Amino acid sequence: MYQLMAEKANKLLVKYQVSEFPISLETIEHILISEGINIQITSYLKRALYCDNVIYIGEALEQSCYREYMIHETAHTYHYGNTALLDPVIVNKNEGQARAFAAYFLMPIGLFEKYLAFDENNYSLAESFGVNQELIETRKSLSQGLINSGMFYKLREEMQHLWR
What pTM did the predictor assign? Predict the structure, then answer.
C-alpha cells in the first residue's frame, strides 16, 4: 500500500538531487516552491494542513518539526478532495500514506538501511536524519514491508547514485 509513496518520495529526491541529510529546511522549502506549493506560517493552527496548493504551518510548532510536517502535508497533494468530507477509513488511509511519504523522503530507501546496518539506535538515527523517534519506528516497519514485498531492491537501486 505504501510502495506508491516510496516511489513518489524517490522521484522528488532524485529530481532535486537531494544527497545531504538531514535535509535542510531551506532545501525542503525550495523543493515545495519549485513544485508550485506555497508555505504559510499561521497563528491559527496547532500543527499543519494542506489546502489549495498551500501548506499552512502553525507558528507554535517547534521549528524542529517543520520539516516533517511540511513533507507530510506535501503527500496530501497526491490525494483528491477535502478530507473533511471523506469517510474516516479513507482519511486514516490518507494519513498513513502521508506519514509513509514523509518517512521515505526524510530517510531515503537504501541510505536509511545503511545506517541500520551499523546497528544505530533510534536516538542516533533520529539525530542523523533530523526526525523524531516515532518516525524512525515507522520507517523501520516500512523497510520490512518493502523487503517482504520484494520491492526494496528495485527502489533502492533508483537511489544509489545520490549517495555513493
Answer: 0.92
